[in-house]
Each structure stands twice: as structure tokens, then as C-alpha cells.
Amino acid sequence: MEQGHVISTIENQIGIIEFGHPLSNSLPGNILNKLALTITELSKNENCKVILLKSAGDRAFCAGASFDELVAIKDLEEGRIFFSGFAKVINACRTSQKIIVARIQGKAVGGGVGIAASADYAFATKHSAVKLSELAIGIGPFVVGPAVQRKIGLSAMSELAIDATQWRSAEWAQNKGLYSSVSESSEIMDEKINELIQKLANSNPDAMRELKEIFWAGTEDWDELLARRAEISGRLVLSEFTRNAIHAFKKK
User: pLDDT tens-digit profile of 127-146?
Assistant: First the structure.
């Protein structure tokens, strides 16, 4: 899966990261690894004071894991490595010294919900429904679960994880704390985003760094925690149930 891209720029002290993939901005391993690396690199760049994280296009924000890569996994180690890609992105957001603002223009599934939850402030449109579909294909949101639970609480995360085929609206996500703002259109959302990131670009970087540490207090063990969760997903993806379920989903 060499398709897709991750590109970054810095404009007026604002770091902008865009990821994209032809299949509804899904996340194959190469995109996950490059996304984590790009977040880390911008976080260390002194010319960047705030990061805007977004996906390409005007439809889905992120369709989550790449089904093509999931069905190609042959053993536990390959599975662990693939799901560790999501862990790397979450931990890159967690350890970043810069506040990360997410632009969620459309639906977010699985790992896409995890990315939205890993941002410090998420803007969305009314079209940005969410779903944790992992259980429906025999896995479970094990890697993204801690990030989602941290943002919306155990009860709401459990609701998403258990009813894995049901979409929850952008308004639901805002009420639970996943989204900070929901707009009628992308144009209105972008106006709000620009207003906030300009304020942040003019804010004290030391104060924002200290805030980040407070926001993420209690997650210091996530390197080990998410690695263990990746192993669980890597084992389950090898099951006959999961392989059959993924093939059925791909035929829809």
C-alpha cells in the first residue's frame, strides 16, 4: 500500500499536517508511521508553535485501519507491528510539546476516532459522525481505546465499542467531549479553526507546553500500555472469525 500521503508545512508559526488516502483516508502502515514521525518532527521544530492536523478532501475524515493490510497479516509479529502504528500516532500526540488542533470534516471510524481523541482540541462539522467498528470484525478498539476513554469517559467509550455498527452523530460526540466545536459547514469550521490557531500562534509556548503536560497527566505508561494492546489486536486479527468478517465487509 504505497498510495496515500502525509505532508507538512509551517506557515506563520503554525504547523500543518495533512494525511490522505484514496480509500476514504484509511490508514495503512506506511501512513501511520509517517504521520507519527511528522507529528514528532514538528513538535521539536522551534519555528512551530501549534499544530493543525487534518485529512485530505471534503468527505470522510478517516476510515480507520486499512482492510487490505489487515487481511494480509500472516503472523502475530506482523499484526503487532501494524497495530503499533496506531500506538505510535497516539503517543506522538501525547508527548508533543505543541497543542494539536484537529480538523474533522467528515465521518471518523476506528483509528480515525482515536486520532480525533488524541488531539487537544477538535473542530468538526455536522457530518462528522463517529463509529468504533472494530468489534464488528472480531477485534476491538484496544489500541485507540485509552485515548477515546480519556476524552469521553468509560461509559461513552463502552457505548461506542459495544454497539460497533451504530453511528453516533457529531452532536453526540460534542456532548461527550470528543469535539470541542461542531459547525454547519466546512467553511464555518475553518473560520473558527483559523481564529483559534492564530491566537495560539501568538501565545506563550512555555505556557502551552506546561498545559500539555497537565492535559496528559496520568498517561506516562502508555508506551507500554498501547504496546500490550497492539499485541491483543495482532493476535485477534489472525482468527478465522476476523478474516471472514473483513472479507464480508470488503464485499459491501
Answer: 999 999 999 999 999 999 99
